[in-house]
Amino acid sequence: MNRQRSFIGFIVAGAIALLVIAIAGFYWFSAKNPANLTASTSGPNAAIFVSKLSPAMVSLLVNPDRLQALEGEGELSKLKTSLFAKSGIDYKEDVQPWLGDEITLAVTTLDIDRDRENGQQPGYLLALATKQPQKSREFVELLFSKRALGGANLAVEQYKGVKLISDNSQPEQDLLAGAVVGEGFVLFANDPKVLRDAINNVQAPDLNLTSSPEYQKATKQFSKGGLAVAFLNLPIVAKWQGLEFPEQTYNSEIISLALNPKGLLAETSFLTSSEIVSPSSPLSKPVGALQYVPASAGLAISGSNLSNLGNSDLAKLWRQATATIYGSEEDMVSRFAKPLADVQKRWGINLPEDIFSWVQGEYAIALLPGKEQTIPHWIFAVEKSESVDKGVARLDAIASSNGLSINLLTLSKQKISAWTELTTATKKSDVKEGTSFSIETKVRGLHTTLGNYEIFTSDLETMDEILTTKDNSLIDNPNFKDSIAAIPLPNQGYIYLDWTKSQNLLERQVPILKLVEVLGKPFFDNLRSLTVSSYGTDTGALKGGVFFQLNNS
Q1: Of 50, 490, 58, which Cα lies nearest the Cα of 254?
Q2: What pLDDT sits at residue 373?
Q3: Phi, psi for residue 483 in degrees, rounded to 5
Q4: Phi, psi at residue 369, to the nearest 5°?
Q5: Rounded to whole angstroms, how far apart are CA atoms 377 and 366?
Q6: DSSP string for residues in 413-456
Q7: Could you tell me which residue, 3 or 59, shows the higher pLDDT?
């Protein structure tokens, strides 16, 4: 019989939802001694059930009740109550006594029966650690007996010493199969074949994920004490989603989540068989250019040596991702980063050639929210060098070719070079002559030298803020200090986003972000900032992290 067998039966939907809510809801716990909330394992033990050809596996490595103990009677409690109530299962009585410290969900295969004619139906496996095997066996029996009372036809088989139970449901219902394997895990799947394959993977170790060289390499990047971890086999994930890799540099990715006294740290490593090329030498401290970024900045990017960025493995990752998802980097910029495309078009410049190529020292780029919250003001600070002087001259030439004048002016006793444009303005006159005209000067950009840095800004107000508020820079901001303190040193610099100051701007540029915020409302309501950085010394892995600073930290 040809029918779609989905994996949204009660127990699976409940576990997935608990996993997602638990991860998204970590903001509750950062102010409540998160040091006590660490995982006791170096990785998912359930990986022995998962094929090494699995596209993806995600694991929660802590008992959900430990999260709820910190949360109190909040979202997790409400979720468990509502989900289990619909199934006739009492969580506290039937699940809580035996549930251990791991919940793992894996996509085991892209097509269970490997028959293209009836469509692609992925195989899903859910593994729940058990601390009381007998109690968990009683739960499996209870679950399937209730499904039988609901009209499902049960099938029981012994497979290699393991009792498998499944229901031959009606076409409009969800097929579910379950088993207790050994003394450690309860397994659920959307087809008995998925369970049989999981058992085979244990008994033939060369078949399971733990035998994969890529997975073994990835687990070395795993942060000890992480609360959750995900492993992605990138080529198979791309195939699963109907995407193609025109340029494949990275083969797999591992992501881990860990609590920090100030928030949540998500670390990821992209694994490659080639040697990683860093765009610049690692930095042991924040770049000095940040002293010229006001604390009011909503977005700040800092590092060193943009001239080699295009040849780095970070750039290869960017090209692989954009080409896979959007078809080309140009399509991605025009669709997702339209403001960047507009800037290049308006100024008639190519950012890599006309700016990045001469930035060989430290730099900082920042956006400051405008009062009207529509067009942000920008700052670009770069360490002085001979190449920078030539680059400034090149920009002056480009400005001149675009019809702008280069004028010198004084602001707060500082000599400033301004790119200006003369425009005419009209207004109705009370006299009989009618309309009168005036000439206005519009500033399109400015630059000046401060210390050992050349500073560029979009407007006079921003330049004046830099000159008059030197003691209120981002580098001295306590929130910024707390955020970068969570990022290991040395590193390649930081991308710092103040969520409260940038939210409106980002929502306009990335409309889908509003949907993401709705789905993760508790998290985004308490998000203060996020900081991204690249670091690590493994020549075969591009490692980085995102630190989410939360309001109650």
Answers
A1: 58
A2: 52
A3: -70, -45
A4: -60, 135
A5: 8
A6: TEEEEEEEEEEEEEEE-SSTT-EEEEEEEEEEEEEEEETTEEEE
A7: 59
